[in-house]
Each structure stands twice: as C-alpha cells, then as structure tokens.
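Moderator note: this is an archived Q&A kept for reference. The question asked for a predicted structure of one protein chain; the sequence and the answer are reproduced below.
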Amino acid sequence: MNSKNNPKNQIMALSAKLREYQDAYYRTARPEISDLEYDRLCNELQRLENEYPEFLQPDSPTFRVGSDLSSDLPEAAHSIPVLSLDKAYTIDAILEWIQKTTVKGRRDLSFTVEEKIDGVSIVLYYEQGILQKAVTRGNGYVGNDVTANIKTIHSVPLRLIEPVSLAVRGEVYLPVKSFLSLNKKMEVPYANPRNLAAGTIRRIKSRETADIPLEIFVYEGFFTDDEQPETHAELTMRLHKLGFRTNSRFGIFTRERDTDRSFFPEWTIGTFADIGSYIEDAVESRDTLDYEIDGLVVKVNELEVRKELGFTGHHPRWAVAYKFESPEGETIVEGIDIQVGRTGRITPVARVKPVRIGGSVISNVTLHNQDYIDMLELSLGDLVAVSKRGDVIPAVERVLEKNEQGNGVWKIPDSCPSCGSELQKIGAHTFCTNSECPDQVFGRVQFFTAKAQMDIENLGPETIQFLMNEGLLKDVPDIYQIDYRELVGKPGFGEKKCELLLKGVEESKHKPYSSVLASLGIPDLGKKAVELLLDDGILDIDSLLSIVDKAETDRLCGIKGFGEKTVASIIHELSKPVARERIRQLRDAGLQFKQEKTSAENLPEQIFSGQVWCVTGSFVNFTPRSKAMEAVKLRGGRVVTAVTGSTTHLLAGAGAGSKLKKAVSLNTAVVTEDEFIKMLNSDS
C-alpha cells in the first residue's frame, strides 16, 4: 500500500492541515481556506476516523464539531485548589489590602490586575501537551467532567505547542453579541450570557455545545514539573506561548516602575499610585467590551510568595476581587422547597437569608428546574449572588462561595410533595402527572377564577382552599355544582358573602368563549393563542376538537403565530380524556363554548386602526385593565405588552412606572383614563 494512502498517514496529514487552518482562523483571524473547503476536509477526516477508529488522535480537529453520543457528566476530582476569592468594594480597600499583603510577604512585592470574567469557571488538565480532561468548579474539590463539550470550543487548545503537563484555570464565556443574537431564538430566554454559557457546557450531547460560539480566557497555570515560572506575569506569557488564549487587558504594578523586563506591549505597567486610575478606567470601559465582567482580580505577582501566604478554608490569601456595584445582593441558601403548579410542573424555590435588593427584601428565589440548579452547581449553604431580573423576579445568578459543610448539588426528590406520586422529567422540567394532585387542583381553580380570566369575585385563594378541605371542590367544574347558600354559618361565610359568591359564579356563565377557553389553563393556549384561533375562523370548541381528533397539524400550523411545538402541545393536551371531561362538564354547566361572529356593521367605528397600544398602571373603570385593551382591539387597534419604537399610544393609569418613562423617552402619545373614555365615547 502506498504510504500516502495508508489510513493512519492520511488521518495524521489531514489532522495537521485542519489544525493549521483552525489556528489561522481562530487565533490570528486570517482564514486560509473557505468555510466550504474546511467543512469538506473535516467531513473527510470524520469519515476516515469512523472507518479506522484505532487511528483517532486525542486532539483530532473533529472534536470541534461535537458528537451525538450522550454524556452523563460524571464527577471528577480536582488536583489543584479551586477556591473562591475574598472581596473588596472600594479602591481604598484594594490599596489597604496591597499594603497589608506586602507586610505579610516581608519584601517588596508587585501585583497584577486582571478583569474578572463573568463566565463559567473551568479547569483544563493536560498530560504531555494533550488535553485529557475538563472539569467544572463544582464544590472546589469535585466537579463535573465536561471534556467532550469543552473540546468543541475552538479557543481551547487540544494539543499544546510543547509536550508539558499542567492544570489550567480559565473562564468560559459567551460574547455579548452572540448572546443577544442567540437569545432571540430561545424558547425560554436566558437572563444573561453567563447562564447560557453554563447551560451550554452541561449539554448532554457535545454537538449541541458546538453550535454555541463559546470562548475562553485562561488566567492560572499549575505545572506538574519544575517549570513553574517565578511570577504570574511570566506564567501568563508562558500560557500564551503554549497556545492558550489570555486576556490582553492586564496590568502590573510595583512600588517603583519596572522597566527591566519585557512584557506584552498591550499590558499596562505602572506603580501603586496608578492602580486607582487603572481601576476607574476599567469600570468606565466595562460597557464597551464584548464580554461581561463583574469585577477585577488583584494578585500577588511573585509565585513563591503566594506559597508562603497560602490559603484560608475558602480563598487564597494572595488574591482579592474588586467587585463592581450592581443591583445584586449576596445571601446564603438556607433551604430549597418545591412548588407544584397547575400543570403539574415542579419548580424549586430557594429559601435564602433575607437580603435587600433595589428597595425590597428578598427571601424566596426561583430556581426554575433541575438543569438550572445543575448549571449553577448549587448546594444548601452556598453563598450566592441574587438579582431582581427586570426589577421584578428574584433569581440566583451565580454561586460565590461553596458551603463549608460539603453539601453536594441539590436534587429534586423522586415523589410529589403534595400527592406522593412519582415525578417524571419531561424535557427540561419535572412534572407530577397526577391530574388530581391537590396542588394542581388548587392552581387550576385559582387560575380559572382570577381577575384576568373568568373574574369570579369573592372566590379567592382562601375560599378555594376551604372548599377543597371540605371536599366540595375537586376540580374546576365543581365551582358550578356547589350550593353556596348551604355554606352560611361556616367560618368566614356570612349570608352576604354566600350571595356574592353565587352572583359571581352565575355572572361568569356569560363570559365569552374566548375567556372560557383561555381560562382552562391549557399549556400554550393562552389569550393570545385563543385570539389567533378566533381570527382564523375557529370559533367554537367543537371545531377545535375536531381538528385535534383528526390531528390536522397543518391546519393549525398555517395560523400565523403558531409553531410546530405549540401545535403539538395543544393537540396533546386537548386529546387527554381528563381535559375533554372538564370541557363537557363546564359546557353542561352553561358556560359559553362558541364565539358569535361579529358582523362588520355591528362593529364600532375603527378609530384606532393602524395604532399600536400598550397599557400600564391601574384604573377605576377598567378592572382588569385588559378590558381597556379589548376596547382598543374592537376598534381596530393592535395591542402589545411592552413599549417599543413602534408603539403609538400608552394608556397610563395610577401608579404607572417604567413603561411610562419609556413612552416619554420615545415621544409615544400618553393617554389618561379620562381621555381614553372620551375617545371611546366619540365613536358612539
């Protein structure tokens, strides 16, 4: 066989070529071949490796595209300390720390200042220059092995320039521009680039990770031989020469200016007197970066002194983080409960030590699902950063310090806390599939009776719970079977309240079909979806159920605004016998399940045609305020939930907040309740 045609030689030659092309594209930004030609060569290498797996190289370029094989993210122990950092919040505190550390070091010291990347901490382990393992921070001693996923990141070298053995700490992040672009396509958008990056490196299939353009900066290296440089600056330069991506925004500061040594030209060299202005410049330029930072890290430059200073139980004594001010609070996770929603979805909720953020005290924080908890590597007792996303929903952003009790990552239990049924994971979420689960029943009834739905007055949460405890209310249709007069004399049930309850229930029978259908709480069939169905001419429940029974997915997918996932979900839910029975009983009770088609001659004058309206605040004559927006739609206007450049009018009631400020800044017409009523009366 010709040596050139030898499979091993072909694989080696093709791999070498592709590594050169990858280096040119990702490190020097000078592509040497077209994307089409690169993909062709990569596919050829993949074919050869599949045919001759015995010749697969540990740093094969095909690892960059990932695999469809599943990975269960096994645990792996760290061989180096992976600790948190002590913190300072002012420049004076940083200078004071430098002074104290210099005294403890018993000699003149120099210090480095680097950006603290707001990403995902990772440790890369190399043997003889080949990447062997990539492990998440975990609890500082044990993390998850995410090697297959990390290998898909082009800025992570699979083979180093030299055959050295070392462990490298770095931060995986997602560039801001990439995050903004990708997040628009997400079914459930992520709060920030860090969380999307963290979720991505924990994907079960590495091919899915390869689709996300993650990057890495490395900032620490630990050689297993005697090659350790003398200073952190020299170590950083060494890592760069080995093929690692280091951050050029790097400062070195000494008591007197150091001009004897050669450093990278992009680095800032100064004295202790320059540190304050360097930090101020870093804070000012923060918003211009294409990656997020949440502070700066100041370190002792001399590595031998670091060994002498050592560590506490949870941070090194030779480094400190300068933390930026942010709308976040730091608190401790004291417990985690799980809530069962009306659809059976399980939501973990962290009970945290109360912390004040943005004028309010936060003690409960949502954790979304198990994947989110795994992504954070969250345990009981951890110190966490909590924010108010959009100034409304509190969320855990990141773990700042692991607990000292050695608690592992918290896991959702196997059984439902409400009914004891076995829980099932469906997609990213965990569910209780018992439709008679008390928490689900309570959630369904509460949703159905709410102001924004059927608006049944006096049937609030406490009354619902009482009726359930009495065995009178087992599902939504029972609302219409109870004889409320018989409740007179029960605790909290006077004659007047019972009459009001009866009146509210009877009045709800006249609610239009659109309200009834949206109030059933069927996943993906909310008010907007119902509106789209009606606009497309599907005006009654029988027509909708006929489409479901015939599995006419094309009919529903043809409606603008309905995607394949939404259609599949609606058909699945409306096919369930329990949903059909609920609809039958409500229809028998006299609720409306048909929308009368409004003729053009019966419509009011289309005074809002071509206009886009939004609403904010509370009103005297429109409770709930959705009634005002119904009036807008009836008169030809379009309704949106947020103020944007295309919004023409904002209806502002008492207590209007951020939407009003946004409308004013965009010169959007702001309409008061009295002005709106005059508009409505002008067409009569």
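Archived answer notes: The chain has a mean pLDDT of 86.
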